Amino acid sequence: MIKVRLVGLFFLLITSIGLSQELTYKTVENISYYPDTSGLSDYQKAQCRLDIYYPEGKKDVPVIVWFHGGGLTGGGKEIPQALKEKGYCIVGVGYRLSPKVKAATCIEDATAAVAWTFKNIADFNGDPDSIFVSGHSAGGYLALMTVMDKSRLDKYDIDANDVAGLVPFSGHTITHFTIRSERGIPGEQPIIDEFAPLYFVRNDVPPTLLITGDRELEMLGRYEENAYFYRMMKVAGQENITQYEMQGYGHNMTHPAFPLLINFVQEHN
């Protein structure tokens, strides 16, 4: 397990610059990722949309699908500034939120967004063979669930193992606390069931990078559950997995972690 310090992060920032300084970029907003909108509720129509930021004049670029955080109860789709102008196609996904829907519905929306990306991203110069799934906090949890539970993408005739890489930032690997809260289970009581990425540990998962904040500064147990996920993946025979602990940073560690995501995409593209 590797612990990253600030010097290493500056190095990654420097090496990630210069991929596409001559490219121009375009943003397309509010695309519905449920193709047939006729049977959708007004809330689903409003929330289940994505934005795409992509370079013009260059095809088959790597794609990063980004899920926002917010505990499955808040937040909105976003294209992180730190991922712009790197030569990539960035997909910022919105999804329905608890308590308007059960939190498990968020996973269904996230899966539909990933499936839409596989089937449509070539129209926006993205490479469907180079799709990386990422997100922060609740978004990291959604990234994990869409890939770890293969049955979800199977419904769209997509093999989750065709994802190029999985990079959750401070994501739950146990059942999400909002799902537990809906069942009356306190946050201090861990559950591992079909809504836990840990439930689906296997040895053929795409290359995975787990990033959390400092174990002493993170949200309750977040580092430790990622460390356990890392260990169980290793025990299962998955060798292509790494965990980084961002020493000195708490749960909101996205800014120093983005260079790690960029470097990961470069290495696995």
UniProtKB/TrEMBL annotation:
Q: Which UniProt keywords apply?
A: Hydrolase
Source taxon at top rank? Bacteria
Q: Which Pfam families match?
A: BD-FAE
Q: Which residues form the BD-FAE-like domain?
A: 50-214
Gene Ontology terms, MF aspect: hydrolase activity
PANTHER family hit by this protein: AB HYDROLASE SUPERFAMILY PROTEIN C4A8.06C, CARBOXYLESTERASE
What this protein is called in its record is Acetyl esterase/lipase
What is the species listed in this Swiss-Prot or TrEMBL entry? Leeuwenhoekiella aestuarii
